[in-house]
Amino acid sequence: MKTMISKYKCGANFPILFYFIIVGTLRFSPIFGQVKQSNQEVNYSINEAWKFSKENNSNSYKIDFPDANWTIVTIPHTWNNEDAMDETPGFYRGACWYRRSVFIGNEAKGKIAILNFDGANQVVELYVNEVLVGKHIGGYTAFNFDITKNIQPGKSNLIAIKVDNSYNENIPPLTADYTFFGGINRPISFSFVAPIHIATDDFASTGIYVKTPQVSEKDATISVKTILKNELSEKSNIQIIHKYINPKGEVVKVSMSKLVLKAYESKNIESTAIQIANPDLWSPDAPNLYKIVTSILDNKNQLLQEKVTFFGLRWFEFTSDSGFYLNGKSLKLIGVNRHEVFAEIGNALRDEFHVQDIKLIKEMGGNFLRISHYPQDQNILDWCDKLGIVTMVEIPIVNAITESNAFLDNSLYMAEEMVKQNYNHPSLVVWAYMNEVMLRPPFKQDAERHAIYCKELNRQAKELEKLISVVEFEFEDTNKQLNSLLSDLEKQYPNGEIDLLEGTVIF
User: Fold this and answer.
1) CATH number of the domain that 411 lies in?
2) 473 φ, ψ to 5°?
């Protein structure tokens, strides 16, 4: 294994970028007055009783399309589950359809309706009541669609989904192991949220990003960015409350800020730098998890939304001469690669399969997991956080690239999805983006053409690394400014409780 990095020191929560040329394998109750329970988020899964067809009929999205003979399937689902195991030649790659009529109750009225996909391989077109809502490219990350304008509350609504895993030279991976299983291979769900809510459209992330710019055995600094959206046609006065809870379940800090959201405005809200004394550090031996309960209240103190975000406090370092250090201590990484595939099931795995694998890694003495070669089900990182397994995750550029801007654009989009969707996991220490790309280069026998290919490969790698660095470290300058200001104020007001966002000092 070779990397672009010989030594990289990382404080707290900054996973490292790795470019691989690999040979072989290796979710409160606020304290600020009485809160009225109102207009909260509603979520439910829709994984049962889907109709499925391998025939790519262009009219499959229409309400009156005859589907009586379609196969009934349950999500997660793949149409390639037996292609790699049977004796029949061929691994079907093409477009298939899923249909289901879903009754949406009146609870959706006045709310924003989101249809969430945890993953589907690899190009998805979504139709709701015969209207094309949108398209997603990439088979290994979550995505969602705002379907508010497309549904009819109190009625049955037709959801039709076209999924296509055909070879496309502009969509990675181009070649790989068993990573081309077509289908809706991860769960689907509805979310109905208040018009004022934590954003769902930042690359299908949670809309909450926890940054820990400084961590030691003595203290830690925490900052939180929350993306809020107002989809009302008028401005709104909002309170956002963060409740910080330690691994023992004790509330250690509470922060609150007030703001005004303009009509149809999206705003990034960055919390005061919170100080935690004597933090419970995260490690394989002690996978301590903190959580933040984020509450959004309107000007009538009505609770609009509440979200729980787990995170950990740790710092780490890679060195060229002595390896990996976690929380200042040398740690030998012992682990495995993992593919999201089981015999006769393919990659359409129920939650228990993911959990079982992580538990097995822990039971056999492992402390490291390479999530290869693509982002996998969210259960993987969740359980690595819980059990104490250090991880890396990567986008699926495997073996080769296409020398096109379209290929690069799709890769960049996948990279931003990967980082933002997995931002808060303490187990994650490495972002990766290319695997074995120089093992079998396509123009090895033509020196001049080979040089052109390598130049383009280098260009794409640099663009990916630049994007991941920008997304990952976007807090850094802000945190430095906040910490500097906080330090100065603490010297001036040693006995006061300082709130930078409110501009107050309480004695």
Assistant:
1) 3.20.20.80
2) -105, 20
Q: Which residue has 């956002």 as its token pair?
A: 240
- Domain boundary (146, 171, 193) is at 193
Within a domain: 447: yes
**Domain check: are 153 and 17 in the same one?**
no
- Does 322 map to a domain? yes
- Same domain, yes or no: 94 and 59: yes
What CATH number is given to the structural domain containing 169?
Answer: 2.60.120.260
Taking the whole predicted model, whether its pTM rises above 0.85 is answered as: yes
Which residues are known catalytic residues?
A: 436
Amino acid identity for residue 176 in this structure: A
144-193: pLDDT as tens digits: 999 999 999 999 999 999 999 999 999 999 998 767 899 999 999 999 99
Q: How is 374-385 classified by DSSP, letter by letter? A: S---HHHHHHHH
SS3 letters across 391-428? EEEECCCECCCCCCHHHHHHHHHHHHHHHHHCCCCCCE
Side chain identity, residue 64: D
Q: How far apart are CA 187 and CA 183, in angstroms?
A: 11
Whether residue 465 lies inside any domain: the answer is yes
Rounded distance between C-alpha atoms, residue 191 and residue 201, angstroms: 13
Most confident of 420-429, 437-446, 497-506: 420-429
Domain identity same for 14 and 106: no
pLDDT-derived band at 478, boundaries 50, 70, 90? very low
Is residue 99's pLDDT more than 80? yes
Looking at residue 39, its pLDDT comes to 61
Number of domains the chain contains: 2
Query: Cα dist. 468→82, 173, 462 in Å?
Result: 36, 19, 10
Regarding whether 467 and 323 lie in a shared domain, the answer is yes
CA separation for the pair 467, 220 (Å, rounded): 27
The yes-or-no verdict on residue 54 having pLDDT over 90 is: yes
Of 22-26, 55-59, 119-123, the poorest mean pLDDT is in: 22-26
What is the spatial distance between Cα 483 and Cα 222, in angstroms, rounded to a whole number?
10
Say if CB 184 and CB 77 are below 8 A apart.
Answer: yes
Please work out, in degrees rounded to the nearest 5, the angle formed at the alpha carbon of residue 241 by the alpha carbons of 491 and 500. Answer: 25
Q: Are 353 and 342 in contact (CB under 8 A)?
A: yes
Domain contains 339:
yes
Q: Is the pLDDT of residue 127 over 70?
A: yes
